[in-house]
Amino acid sequence: MPIVTFANPTGMPAPAARYSMTAEVTGASRWVLVSGQLPVAQDGSVPEDYGAQADLVIAHITAALAHHGLGWGNVVKLTTYLTTRAARGPWQERRDALFPGTPPASTQVIVSGLADPRCAIEVEVIAVG
């Protein structure tokens, strides 16, 4: 069973939001990397509402993690791509609710576009189990 230690080391600035600066994994027997997930429903539709987009991305990642017998508590790193700052609040609100304890390491980037121009949010995760 892996041991995950999150930290905000001295000599570094405090995180700008609710995340940890580092994640150390020792004794890990298995890593699961989930490709960037877009808010595209099974029927190919994309909700216009940023909160609904965030919910759909979370549902996709939840399914990917569950496929490997893992959950959000196994996530050690998130990378989030947003096409607008307006999507930041809805995404962060939902992201923070996923991690009631110490949050994982995280990177969030505002980009000019994603592969599907209807999407404002894409998230990839690294999990250990």
From TrEMBL:
GO molecular function, one term: deaminase activity
UniProt-listed Pfam families: Ribonuc_L-PSP
GO cellular component: cytosol
Protein name per Swiss-Prot or TrEMBL: RidA family protein
Family listed: Belongs to the RutC family.
Classification of source organism: Bacteria, Pseudomonadati, Pseudomonadota, Alphaproteobacteria, Acetobacterales
InterPro entries: YjgF/YER057c/UK114
Superkingdom of source: Bacteria
